[in-house]
Amino acid sequence: MPRRAVVIGAGLAGMLAAAALSASVEEVIVLERDDLPDGPQHRRGLPQGRHAHLLMAGGLAAMDDLVPGTCMRERLLAAGAHEVALGQGLVALTPEGWFRRWRHEGPRMLTCSRALLDWVVRATVLAGTDVRIQQAQALELTGDVSRVRGVRVSTPDGERELEADFVVDASGRGSRVLKWLKELGLSDIREKTVDAGLVNATRIYRRPAGAEQFPVTLVQADPYGGRPGRSGMVLPIEGDRWMVSLAGTRGSEPPTDPEGFLRYTLDLPDPIVGRLISGAEPLTEVRVSRSTSNVRRYLEKARRWPDGFVVLGDAVATFNPAYGQGMSVAALGADVLSAELRRGGVDAPGLARRVQRGVARSVSAAWAMAVGQDVWFPQVRGARPGVADHLVARYSRRMTKAATGSYRAATAVWDVTSLATGPSRLLRPDAMLAALTGPLLPALPEPPLTAQEWRIVRELDRTRG
């Protein structure tokens, strides 16, 4: 009897889950309610789609394992994505000072528009597997608390039941999974929201001639100063463009008008972002999004869990996008699914529960990083810093300070922020020694740019007479 898997949602998490399932079942159907573009265009249902997205090393490595014979990195680079080495290609002002640029490259990340990334992943999965996409909206799960047996769907031709041996909910931030599980008899799942009121504002610029190798430039928010957070970033994307994304927490939201947008960049702790864009050619208006809260569903802690059903991506947890974790967490979750399927197939007893608990490991790491900082912003809703948060913040700040002038500390920070390893990396003896020793080099008074890069800044800067 042919085996069928159904995936709800054709976004990044859904397509990666479909790729993972394709080697274990005869048929994989991806349900998507929205019309999907034929190329790298923005689509409805992705509120953060027009803002900055970083694909970290851990997430990229997971993607490369999911479609046999395919290198996702090479496909993304061929489509116009940029590869950035954290050790050399990133200029970042942290609350503890400027990070240095080292001779060693460190982990790499990819930068591009979310539209390009989704399109490349979708096209790669469809070309390399027998996965097919069907326009339909999932209405409810079928089965019972012991096993999910399919999905009731609404299609242009009416409602019907779609039977399946395995179902994955990858429907994103708006998932109705808690309602669906309650209808099956599972109602003990806790949900937590931590909302710093972050607003993102993004504008696209033409990349200036001669700035092809200009580093990703980031001014981070300071969660510890007792004031609303403000941050800004310039990163290269496909089509010879710069994406400039600003973010402000409740009480310091970035404006939507072009003049206010520029003023906001110049009022950041360092004006480097504003100096760069003041003379660059804008290609779009300012786009704003407010769907930025951290939300986690503790599915792995349910007393019972139905066989044949797994939840991945934003349907499990969403994170403040300022930390660049969501896509990588989705990829790591799909990789957990793939690994468990290789061990025993879709009929392995307890498969779904093992996957859900495995997914929780990367979710927990990302949650700790995001919420551990967001709880310190004024007017945050859903949490307040406790004793443990004070201890973690104290150590984290010490480690970040050390990383401004210690290569050993910097590598530990890179490994964790790139999701190549978990937060326990910061507790290894070499990392702890680096944190205790502190920075070995003096603090930098200004961005660590080369002479050529400073020349580009001066040529673009329209803020000074």
TrEMBL record:
InterPro entries: FAD-bd (IPR002938), FAD/NAD-bd_sf (IPR036188). The keyword Signal applies. Coiled coil: none annotated. GO terms for molecular function: FAD binding. Residues 1-19 form the signal peptide. Keywords: Signal. Residues 5-332 form the FAD-binding domain. The keyword Signal applies. This is FAD-binding domain-containing protein.
